[in-house]
Amino acid sequence: MTPIFRFASTENHPMRGPRQHSPSISYRYFTESARSRCRHGFSIAWPYRPSRIGRSALHPVGNARRMGKDNYPNTGRLRHMPIQTYALHPGFAAEASYRDLSERLDDTVIAAIGAALKTYPVLVFRDQHLTDAQLRDFALRFGPLEIGRPAARPGRRRLAIPQIGDVSNLDEDGKVRALTDKRRLDSLGNRLWHTDASYMPVPVVFGFLHAVTLPPPSPFGNGETEFADMRAAYDALPQATRDAIDPLVAEHDIFWSRAQIGFTDFEPGDREKYPPSPQRLVRRHPVTGRKNLYLSAHASHIVGWPVADGRLLLLDLTSHATQPGFVYSHDWRVGDLLIWDNRCTMHRGRPHDEMQPRDLRRATMLDTASTLDEAA
Ligand SMILES: [Fe+2]
């Protein structure tokens, strides 16, 4: 029998789309040659074989049916399959399933998420509901956490835990900030393509962003977050260009990125607290060994080049790296938890209704060394 492979599309995915599985689906389509992906789009941990005694407990759909459930609440506990992934953007972004990330998770689950992030540096978990403490504790399983620039400022804050970044349009009292609010204007710099904290001497690794409250759709956008695959962008450059940019170092500066949108109203002392930082223009991922561009709106110029030449090169590379083919755009739902690898991706926020509350919470894992100390 010739196997028939029909990979799931977004619209018929059983976890996401309106279409439910047809009970008439035959499992004859699963064969050993299907390797590690079934027709639902799930990666499976070992070759699935059809069985005369029923559907395998290790297959998420088979298991859910066996349990008489229409979702996959049990799959997280299955042996060999701590999580399943479903590609949203080939080789770059995936939806991952796990019942409840607010629980105290087994090390195998954390390891499985880490492994999935090697393949998919943007990972989406749906229907999670974590308190700030639970988000902090979950992120801490991956490494030490950053206290971001806004949380490091003196004064009252809306969120109690300093490691939880306030990605919202709300003030200290939970009210929507005015359009002219200084904190809001500063945060608008995140609408430019960037990697988080690249202006720091030692930048960050994983971002964990959790949607708590979302505004209704607006004429200017729905607050999507877009991610660009900096590995694919690097691979797509001509070899001669790659050779030429490999040894370059860019200077990253928060004052430069904010100046691009006309924001210069920093606190006294910020210039001394956040001086520019040099970063490799091309990084080799320490886990996968794959090279990628390391760009950001914070990147001001190329060290050793005339400022204008460096700035134009950075503009060219950013335009190249953010072409639609390299970009995944995430439409937020309340309960989403996104994890992304800042070392090999860029991201930006999109406009939304500024009159309505939008509340996302972020934890960010620190790196351990400068990009200049990484292997070339
Ligand atoms: Fe960001």
UniProtKB/TrEMBL annotation:
Protein name as annotated: TauD/TfdA-like domain-containing protein
Ranges for domain TauD/TfdA-like: 85-364
Ranges of compositional bias, category Basic and acidic residues: 351-364
Keywords noted in UniProt: Dioxygenase, Iron, Metal-binding, Oxidoreductase
Annotated stretches, region: Disordered: 349-376
UniProt family annotation: Belongs to the TfdA dioxygenase family.
Signal peptide, first to last residue: none
Gene Ontology MF: a single term: metal ion binding
InterPro entries named in the record: TauD-like_sf (IPR042098), TauD/TfdA-like (IPR003819), TfdA_dioxygenase (IPR051178)
Residue spans of biased composition, Polar residues class: 367-376
UniProt-listed Pfam families: TauD
